[in-house]
Amino acid sequence: MYRSEDHRTFAAASESGMEASGEQTAADVWARVKRRLRAELGEDIFASWFGRLELDSVVEGCAYLTVPTRFLKSWIESHYADRVLSVYRSETPDVERVSIGVRSTLGREATPQRRPSEAPRPNAAPMPMATQASEPKMPSMALPQEERGENSDLGGAPLDPRLTFESFIVGRSNALAHAAADRVAHAPNGQVIYNPLYLHAGVGLGKTHLLHAIGHEMRAQGRRVIYLTADRFMYGFVASLKAQTSLAFKERLRGIDLLIIDDVQFIQGKQIQQEFGHTLNALIDAGRQIVIAADRPPADLENLDERVRSRLAGGLVVEVTALDEALRTSILSTRIEGLKTIHPTFEVGPNVISYVARSITANGRDLEGAVNRLLAHATLTGSAITLETAETAIRDLVRNREPKRVKIEDIQKLVASRYNVSRSDILSERRTAAVVRPRQIAMYLSKVLTLRSLPEIGRRFGGRDHTTVLHAVRKIEKALGEDHALSDEVELLKRMLQE
User: Fold this and answer.
1) pLDDT tens-digit profile of 221-275?
2) For residue 37, what are the domain limits?
3) Chromosomal replication initiator DnaA C-terminal domain spans which residues (predicted)?
């Protein structure tokens, strides 16, 4: 079949008196090479890596091929260059080597770099990719977003200019997280440490502030930074799949110096999680820094693939705990002092600040809300801020503050300590009475004090079945109605966990 096509091509060229048969034959050979690659490598691999590989020209025994991105060029050269050359040489002895270049976004017609005085020669072969070192522009998709503005198609979220290291207030609960973030941001000579740095905390405790602060500092050093929320990452990946630009999306993410992902607990979908895992591996293996934030430690991210959780746990994991009263007082005082530059008459006495710090214990955002309420009262009524007015202003924040989020790990530790067994005993297969009763109490408290399902609780207790958890919960519920001492003991454990 191929011989007849070549014959028809040659005959048509001869009749027209033009020497176009060489170019046409090169295209036919390339079509056969692609069909061979598809058959040998399979449809999935071919579509992923060779679907946009095109022939530019064949000059002096070299086949010049082009792809749209540098990432694709690097991958094919590293993994498939020998295979492409082998298949090519089996189709035609004229090709002795293969060269892969990146296509310009200006279009194929702009590829040959001619001087204005030069007239194009009829049927001249296109200039080979290797001679285009003087190309004036690189493809815009290969540049990080921060070098092209926040509205580019990279999809990163902007950094808040207010959230810097200078505006972050350090206390006992966040000192370790702040020190780790500062070390990452100021690592000498672009050194990568604590990779990935994983910060986890409840709502409004400052983890996002630290993410932005790291981003600001490293961007000021001229580093390529992208900050993404989990939903922004998912949207960008899905949009790239629909637009058939997923390879460009991957290259843009993997060509940066610092990747920041916030609220990673919201990443869903098997394919998206796989791509997230591949991105983590590629950046870490390439020596690029990753900083992650979530509302729980990696082991508690049940929705994420186990390999991704393991990768996240392989760096430095730091928890930002609840704000202590001294830190809450510092946050309030700093915020009030800042507002006084705009509202000079805004005065809040130390007794009021102390009252607000003692009353609002949930998170920093509630503290911000309290300051805004005090400011509104002072500016709208013109009266001084007293304890009575402060109590009225923040009443809803005190009443609606969130209860402490209880973790299964904390339950296991407290119960183990209370009954003089180890946490490993509770998670083990031991069936002695000294271990079984604490284990059942811990399972009961996990069901009552957390939102975890029975299968999730079973997995956290040594991989047990949900029916085992259900049996333990029912047995403890029955025992509580019959044993007043046990009921008092369990109530005490509840209070200790919720304080």
Assistant:
1) 888 899 988 888 887 777 777 777 767 777 777 778 899 999 888 887 788 888 8
2) 2-108
3) 407-476
For 62, the 3-state DSSP assignment is strand
What is the C-alpha separation between 415 and 444, in angstroms, rounded? 11
Binding site residues for ATP, as ranges? 204, 206-208
What's the rounded Cα separation, in Å, for the pair 108 and 54? 11
Beta carbons within 10 angstroms of residue 354's beta carbon: 15
| 479-486: long-range contacts, CB 8 A cutoff, minimum separation 24 | none
What digits encode the pLDDT tens for the residues 346-386?
888 889 899 998 888 878 888 888 898 898 888 888 888 88
First to last CA, the chain: 81
- Residues 433 and 419: their CA atoms lie apart, in Å, by 11
Q: Tens digit of pLDDT for each residue in 52-104?
A: 888 888 888 898 998 877 767 877 887 788 889 888 888 888 888 899 988 75
Coil, strand, or helix at residue 430?
coil
Q: Which amino acid is at 394?
A: I
* Residues 197 and 318 sit within 8 Å (Cβ to Cβ): yes
- Long-range (24+ apart) CB contacts under 8 A made by 272-275 are 272/233, 272/234, 272/237, 272/238, 273/304, 273/305, 273/308, 274/305, 275/237, 275/250
Looking at the fold, whether 174 and 311 belong to one and the same domain comes out as yes
pTM assigned to the model: 0.52
Instruction: Determine contact, residues 55/30, Cβ cutoff 8 Å.
Output: yes
Provide the CATH number for the domain around residue 456.
1.10.1750.10
Which single residue is written with the structure tokens 């811990």? Answer: 442
d(CA 67, CA 472): 60
Main-chain phi, psi angles of 177, to 5 degrees: -65, -40
Tell me, yes or no, whether 228 lies in a domain.
Answer: yes
pLDDT class for 44, splitting at 50, 70, 90? low
Q: Residues 490, 341: one domain?
A: no
Annotated binding site: 204, 206-208
Q: How far is residue 193's CA from residue 185's CA, in Å, rounded to a whole number?
A: 10
